[in-house]
Amino acid sequence: MSDIADLVSDDCPGAREIGFALPDRYNAASILFDNLAAGRGDKAAVLTEAGATSYADLCADACRIGNGLLNLGCVPGDRVILVLNDSPDYAAAIFGALRAGLVPVLINTLSPADQIAYFVEDSAAKAALIHEEYRGLFDGASVDNLIVLDGPAGRDWVAGCSADLPMADTHRDDMAFWMYSSGSTGRPKGVVHLHHDMAYTVESYARRVLDIREDDVCFSVPKIFFAYGFGNSITFPFAVGATTALLPDRPVPGRIFDLIRACKPTLLFALPTVYTALIKSPDAAAADLGSVRMCISAAEVLSGDVFNAWKSRFGHEIVEGLGSTEVLHIYLSNTVDRKRLGSAGLRVPGYEVKLTDRDGAPVAPGEEGILWVRGQSSAPCYWNRPDKTAETMRDGWIWTGDRFTVDADGFHFFRGRADDLIKVSGQWVYPLEVELCLNEHPKILECAVMGLPMEDGRTTLAAVIAPIPGVQGGSDLGEELKAYVKSELLPYKYPRRIVYMDSLPKTGTDKIDRQACKRLLLADA
Asked: Does residue 75 sit within a domain?
């Protein structure tokens, strides 16, 4: 897409606020490679349970991978699909591609084969770097070069390439990397990010909210392919010469506690569903989080029950924030010193936010409105989706589609999606309001609430609920929950249908899989 530069906004008061400036000729691989010039070559860049990888070794492997891709015939601007577990391989692949002027495309490892084929076709990728367990996903994908990095041929391929690779002469506004949106409302969209975007999230969020420093060890339960995890595991630690702790396998509670025990992180990043699972895990009783100085949550609304239970068990208050793939990381956040339970937080320095009605007019103070955000980490476009680009990226702003209120102190409170409003018994209801209410009930572990179509064309309110261990789902609990919602909200806002599960299905980013919940409810009808 040759006109990406035309979509980049130079008018960014947020950048002036934080004093953000980069030279025109800039390559995002500098975030890793600058550590060599700073004398950190021998320091641990990556920790896993298998051991440490130094900055010098990681940079050498990145150069080898970059050279290997160029030797395959890739040229600057070509896309390279990455389907990798969190590992030193993944970090080296990202920075090797960037240093070579190529565009790494970070793919969810839980993607089905038909979606992998779509990603390859949509991106016109010239190569794919994968781990062995994902080889079968590419049987129906037309990719010229498939490299299995953890296989014998892949290891030989990396080892046989030079560890000397000059930095590609890229512009700060050149296309750098992609992530795909979840596709919950249609086929996934390729979110294009530029070379300066990573550095911007460091100056805005990492320095001003995390106060990240060289002696930190970051552990992100959300994976690298997830924008939230990408910043936590890749951008932020390397930007300051810190260390990232990576867990390659599925982040179940026992494995999370194993890595915390082995790597002793100081910054722990997770989602509310993960914090809930950790609290309820039998391994929590013996877990030691003494190394952790800060716990961060994003991607879902953090309930007061989870916040209080975590603090009671481990002594840490969870710092909640809100970000998006389009903005690359968090742009609203509480802080250690300024926080409000149930709030997504304050505007992160470097970003502008505003609330409007559906027509784009500002709402009055205290009124609910749709959130817009602007900052120099904002994606300029979706790849080859001008319709969706025009809908979301408007005059340098990102239209989030999320409804918020903001209090007199600037704390923002999520009220649901702009398109979530449903009519039940002739009156309008936001499912999230009911979901938040149910999550406060002492017998509820987690839940998802949504509207479902009925045969007569009306919509009913339904809930998928996981009770806490030891509580039996059934008609008695259902009546208790319905009465609770009626008493806490308005009588018509209770869920008419309830399905019980031991735990709710999760996506690859450990969010509640609402599409799976909806299918369950429809099947149970």
From this structure: yes
Asked whether residue 431 falls in the same domain as residue 397, the answer is no
Write down which residue in 379, 406, 433 finishes a domain. 406
CA separation, residue 520 to residues 111, 124, 432, 444, 474 (Å)? 20, 35, 18, 19, 16
- Map residue 508 onto helix, strand or coil: coil
Bigger pLDDT: 432 or 154? Answer: 154
> Could you tell me the residue range of the domain that residue 435 belongs to?
420-524
Q: Are residues 201 and 324 in the same domain?
A: yes
Say what percent of the chain tops pLDDT 90: 79
**How far from each other are the two terminal CA atoms of the chain, in whole angstroms?**
46
Instruction: Let me know whether 284 and 385 are in one domain.
Output: yes
Contacts 24+ apart (CB under 8 A), 86-89: 86/223, 86/224, 86/229, 86/233, 86/246, 86/247, 86/248, 87/46, 87/48, 87/131, 87/246, 87/248, 88/45, 88/46, 88/48, 88/53, 88/58, 88/61, 88/246, 89/61, 89/129, 89/131, 89/149, 89/150
3-state class (DSSP) for residue 474:
coil
Q: Which two tokens stand for residue 236?
A: 């932020």
Cβ neighbours of 281 (radius 10 Å):
15
pTM: 0.85
383 & 487 share domain: no
Look at the chain and report how many structural domains it folds into: 2
Could you please report the per-residue DSSP string of 364-397? PTT--EEEEEE-TTS---BTT-HHHHHHHEETTE
Q: Which residue has the tokens 């392919």?
A: 225
Average pLDDT for residues 187-202, to the nearest whole number? 96
Query: Can you give the CATH number for the domain in which 34 is found?
Result: 3.40.50.12780
Quick one: pLDDT at residue 232?
A: 98
Residue 510 lies in a domain: yes
For residues 442 and 415, the answer to whether their CB atoms sit within 8 Å is no
Using CB atoms within 10 Å of the CB of residue 516, give its burial: 0 to 12 exposed, 13 to 18 middle, 19+ buried.
Answer: middle
pLDDT value at position 424? 75
Residue 338 three-state SS: coil
Q: In sequence order, which ranges of 304-385 are alpha helices (DSSP H)?
A: 304-314
What value does the mean pLDDT of the chain take? Answer: 92
Give the integer Cα–Cα distance in Å for 363 and 145. 52
| 56 and 189 belong to one structural domain | yes
Label the pairing between strands 393-394 and 369-374.
Answer: unpaired
Asked if 311 and 377 sit in the same domain, the reply is yes
> How far is CA 245 from each of CA 88, 107, 234, rounded to the nearest angstrom?
10, 20, 10
Asked if residues 173 and 7 have their Cβ atoms less than 8 Å apart, the reply is no
Same domain? For 149 and 47 the reply is yes
160 in the same domain as 137: yes
Asked which of 355, 373, 406 is the last residue of a domain, the reply is 406
What whole-number distance in Å separates Cα of residue 225 and Cα of residue 508? 9
Report residue 399 as tokens.
């239209």
CA 144 to chain centre: 29
